[in-house]
Amino acid sequence: MKDLKVLINEKELMERVNELANQIEKDYLDEEIILICILKGAVYFTTDLSKRINNNKVVLDFMKVSSYGSATETSGKVDFQLDLSEDIKGRNVIIVEDILDSGVTLHYLINILSKRNPKSIKICTLLDKPERRRKQVKVDYVGFEIKDKFVVGYGMDYNEHYRNLPYIGYFE
Ligand code: IMP
Ligand code: MG
Fold first, then answer.
1. Whose CA is nearest to atom 5 of ligand 1?
2. Closest of 28, 110, 3, 114 to residue 65, by C-alpha
3. Residue-range domains of the chain with CATH
4. Looking at 48, 98, 101, 128, which residue is catalytic?
5. Ligand 1 in contact with 101 (CB < 6 A)?
6. Secondary structure (3-state) at 161
7. DSSP character for 135?
8. How many CB atoms are closer than 10 A to CB 24?
9. Residue 67, φ and ψ in degrees, nearest 5
């Protein structure tokens, strides 16, 4: 690995997370929202986002899937590791992801969660790498569109390391 460079600093991240939270707040008003955090990558984003949504009916839930064969390339197969604790039938759901890359993970998640008949289902991703798309996925909230670079930090890892960086970095 070469040098770690800053792609999005902490201030830029927090400003954008705040904007996304305001948008979500307006879109749902005082309706209940279940934020589904996709572990582990989306954990920092989900907690920061949730704190900025001024709505007393925000519910947090977690799911764990992994789609990575190697450290930086999707295998195209999704491995389902942890399910929700909430029953989402008839409720508003927002899937919160760290990064939309090939689209394999979110395509799979939308598929299984829609079958549980939520009232509504939306996707909120912090980062979007459109160049790498293999499965088309409709996203409702996007933090930043980025180039095809492998990024780490603010929840995202390289072999489980770097998740705790307060900013998003990339290797050069
Ligand atoms: P997809 O199924 O290819 O869209 O991949 C989505 C998942 O791959 C994300 O939730 C991340 O966990 C992981 N991922 C994709 N790109 C990166 C990256 O640049 N850095 C770290 N993890 C990544
Ligand atoms: Mg992830």
1. 101
2. 110
3. 10-149 (3.40.50.2020)
4. 101
5. yes
6. strand
7. S
8. 22
9. -120, 5
Q: Which helix (H) or strand (E) holds 91?
A: none
Specify whether the CB–CB gap between 97 and 38 falls below 8 A: yes
Half-sphere CA count of 103, side-chain side, radius 13 A: 13
Q: pLDDT tens, 129-148?
A: 999 999 999 999 999 999 99
Which of 7, 63, 101, 172 has most ligand 1 atoms within 8 Å of its beta carbon, as the pocket-test mutant? 101
Q: Which amino acid is at 150?
A: F
pLDDT, tens digit, 9 for 90 and up, residues 147-165: 999 999 999 999 999 999 9
Atom of ligand 1 nearest to the CA of 103: 4
Report yes or no on whether pTM surpasses 0.85. yes
d(CA 68, CA 107): 15
Residue 1 is predicted with a pLDDT of: 58
Which residue did the predictor score with more confidence, 33 or 73?
A: 33
